[in-house]
Amino acid sequence: MLLTGAAAAFAGVARGANAPFALSDAQWRQKLSPAAYRVLRQAGTEQPFTSPLLNEHRRGRFACAGCDLPLFSTNTKFDSGTGWPSFWQPLAHAVATHTDYEIGLPRTEVHCLRCAGHLGHVFDDGPAPTGKRYCMNGVALVFHAGAA
Ligand SMILES: [Zn+2]
Predict the structure, then answer these.
(1) What is the pLDDT of residues 71-104, one digit of tens each?
(2) Which CATH number does the domain housing residue 124 bear?
(3) Residue 23 to residues 8, 26, 34, 64, 71: CA-CA distances in angstroms?
(4) Is 112 marked active-site?
(5) Protein residues within 5 Å, CB atom, of ion ligand 1
(6) Which domain holds residue 95?
């Protein structure tokens, strides 16, 4: 696969090399499950309706499975029917976005602000009040019950 410019700089083992929380590729492989590595470090997508977090209804926060930065509150979680955990807003200072063309059309990729791990995508068909749908891979998140 030929990647150019920013996409090449962002993809593969270079992902997050300059992020505030950075590990070597070998360290990431050791730290993460194979499924989490494929999503967070290789921008993979988990199969829909496979994440146990879809049925997580306690109050709390969803943090990055790579670096444990809190990313989303249960206050903004909703059932999108897509089979992926969905939120209408991230926490402040939690995620950043980047346009990718992996399916041939522009999509807005969402990644962790601290470790640059790939989390999912954001779409404009979400509910009020933001109209955004943050479509997240559950394997990229860990749930911490408690204050939302
Ligand atoms: Zn992270």
Answers:
(1) 999 999 999 999 999 999 999 999 999 998 888 9
(2) 2.170.150.20
(3) 19, 8, 16, 14, 19
(4) no
(5) 64, 66-67, 69, 112, 114-115, 117
(6) 5-145
